[in-house]
Amino acid sequence: MLRLLIIWAAILGCCHGQSEVSRRNSRLRVMSPPELEGTYGCASTDFGFPQHGGSMTGVVVYPRRNTMACTSFDDFGISLRSRPAGALPVILLVDRGGYLQYRLKPSAYVQTAEAIRRCPVSVCGASLKYMRLRLDDSLPHPYPRMDAGENLRIAVGDALNSDKVRNGQKAGAAAVLLVDQITQPLFTVDKSESSQATNDLQDVTIPSALITRSLGNSLKKAIDNGDLVNVNFNWGESRLYPDERAEYEFWTNSNDECGPKCDSQVDFLKRFKGVAQTLEKKGYTQFTPHYITWHCPESYQNSKMCRSQCINYGRYCAPDPEQHRYDGCDVVVQKLHQLCVFKVAKRTGKPWLWWDYVTHFAIRCSMKEMNYSKRCADRVIESLGLNQKEVDMCVGDPSADEENPALKAEQDTQIGKGSHSDITMLPTLVINNRQYRGKLEKGAVLRALCASFQENNKPSVCSNEEEDIQTNQCLDNNGGCWQDMAANVTACKDTSTGTVCECPVLQGVKYIGDGYNDCKAPMYQDWQPIKIRNTHTYSSYLEYLRHIRCSNRICKLCEEHGMKVVSVTSLVLALAIV
């Protein structure tokens, strides 16, 4: 049997995603029953994908069994899917769990894990991974060392928040409200213990929020009294800045070999580039990229690990890439290059060139192809028409025993301030100073940005993302792609996701190459000229002309066909109509 509670509420700023801790307290407004009217605090959970700018109204259900949602509701014969037509969605109210206090014996300090083994606690699922440890009133710490006589608080019945919400989702809930069983500030912690656990969060698609113990008890009491209240989740939390421009930042990585997470970041950058550049050029947004580094403890600066993973004498470090000969210090240097490219591009009034740089670098300078180097980065910078000397000055000397101003500023920015929580995970997207909590996909991120604007002031790309994409980006430095000026041929193409560099197809002949440094026409047996505007090429002579200069015999042959030789390149024989 289920107990029902219908409440009106507006959850302001409960935005969801994949960071470790949500420091941002949101507001829950209860509008009825009368005795519960008022505004309460809530905290966003770190998973689930809301519709930014949208809202949800539903009926809250509190189950008599499996109140902690530790296991599947199917085991208790509970289903929330069977509702009459027109009924409101179900919002599930579940308990988050409590704790027992265990005092360590007066002996030498022990590891918390040992204390857990000695403490007979019945835990949800009988699994240690579901325990939450608290030292008095401090925040959870994984297996800390404790001195004799200290109180150890062990959370019981506290499955991972994501497991609770997942069980609610499988039962048919449209959203979940988690009731904290500990009187404490609203922090939601759900750090994954493995990469598999992090990937499992992707299948949790419904929104959820944590409410206080006192509010939860009040709601349960209202349920017992038979009160009916409606609940409304509102994700219109994005606030436009005073200059009517959405501001967002993306914490990313230059490492392209860290598994599926790196692959998804690169894919997002490629797909979102066109939208991002259009919004930036038209003044709708202000974008800033960021990069996470850490410093090596001073006592370990001469260790092998710090020397391989850090630059500037242990001040800025990154982990080694997976399964490649590159070190963490190589990753930090490329992070610094990308950061400096943005700074130089911004000073020239073209900050959107950062998107071209990172996407071109990912293709041309990959670790897999063993091109992850400064030399390759310099070629990309040159192809985009950026000032190489200014970039080098910003990068400085990675081997010097000194601070790098750009990376030092990044480390300072990692520390949360106000509603901006600490940045600890990659990737992290922040929109209008609020962490974005949703899928890292073009459409989802665009919707979150568009939620910043009033309906009468939204960019047209918000209504039709294919409609308003710039179609002339190849005019700016040829998009950083290969071109043959003499033959008037380019590898740059404008698409709905921005420019791409692909060797051209001319009259059925596909040029071969990477599209950035080189494109070559293949050898053909026919002598049919391929018309390129007012010039022609003889494909059968291309390979031959790579090794010889234009001889009188070739020139005479050209003249017999009514052509005059204009120039000879390593790729084409350019001819003009006489």
The CATH H-level homologous superfamily of the largest domain:
Glutaredoxin
Protein structure class: alpha+beta
So what's the CATH class of the largest domain?
Answer: Alpha Beta
Q: How much strand?
A: 15-25%
Low-confidence stretches: 1-25, 100-158, 188-197, 524-552, 566-578
Q: Based on the structure, what is the oligomeric state of the protein chains?
A: single chain
> How is the biggest beta sheet arranged?
8 strands, mixed, barrel
Keywords: Glycoprotein, Membrane, Repeat, Signal, Transmembrane, Transmembrane helix
Domain Vacuolar sorting receptor thioredoxin-like: 247-450
Subcellular location: Endomembrane system; Membrane
Membrane topology: Single-pass membrane protein; Single-pass type I membrane protein
Overview in brief:
The chain has about 575 residues and is an alpha+beta fold. About 25% of the residues lie in helices and about 25% in strands. Helix 7 runs antiparallel to helix 8 and helix 7 crosses helix 10 (about 390-395).
Blueprint (SSEs and pairs):
Elements: E1 2-5, E2 8-12, E3 21-22, E4 25-32, E5 38-44, E6 55-63, E7 90-95, E8 98-103, E9 110-111, H1 112-118, E10 133-135, E11 145-146, E12 151-156, H2 161-171, E13 175-179, E14 188-189, H3 195-200, E15 208-211, H4 213-224, E16 230-234, E17 246-252, H5 260-281, E18 285-291, H6 304-309, E19 310-311, E20 316-317, H7 328-347, H8 353-364, H9 374-383, H10 388-395, H11 405-414, E21 428-431, E22 434-435, H12 442-450, E23 483-484, E24 489-490, E25 492-495, E26 498-501, E27 505-506, E28 509-510, E29 512-513, E30 519-520, E31 530-532, E32 535-537, H13 542-545, H14 552-560, E33 563-568, E34 573-577
Parallel strand pairs: 2-16, 6-7, 7-13, 13-15, 17-18
Antiparallel strand pairs: 1-6, 2-4, 3-14, 4-5, 5-15, 6-16, 8-12, 9-11, 10-12, 17-21, 19-20, 21-22, 23-24, 25-26, 27-28, 29-30, 31-32, 32-34, 33-34
InterPro entries: PA_domain, VSR_TRX
Keywords: Glycoprotein, Membrane, Repeat, Signal, Transmembrane, Transmembrane helix
Subcellular location: Endomembrane system; Membrane
